[in-house]
Amino acid sequence: MWTVIETPVGPLRLVGDGSALTAIDFLGEMPTGVGEAASVRNAALRIDTRVLDDQADGDPLLRDAAAQLAAYFRRELEEFDLPVVPSGTPFQLRVWEQLRAIPYGSTATYGEVAAALGLTGHGARAVGTANGRNPVPVVVPCHRVVGSSGSLTGYGGGLHRKQLLLELEQDALF
Asked: Where is the Methylated-DNA-[protein]-cysteine S-methyltransferase DNA binding domain (predicted)?
């Protein structure tokens, strides 16, 4: 089941399985810049190949998710209280759970996330790959992960959306 909501970062399709949120898809135009084409292309492939049930705008879970996202975008909600069951490998699930520990208004580097998971060596690269496959952006805040220099790096919804999400959270702190 699914529904579409309008947000400051464009339309989002919320997908659920009846008991949990399983995906959030960025819809509409996803302009790409240098270095982000692969991230956006991979996200679009996941969206385009996802098998969906019927639209269910009145479903209580999807309505609650829509309400919490609306409150987040109004800067009234910093932590989501939604059942989330993304589909992924055990490693991806560990990374996505770690992303949920990054506080609102903060960022972490790929290396910091890797270290928190006890990874060394190329762990940051593996975290980056898992981060890029996060099927529940915003709620599982992959936008809060940045490059080692603090720079914005690829984002499945496009770097412009990542920047907007980070600015929304930063502005709410002051």
From this structure: 90-170
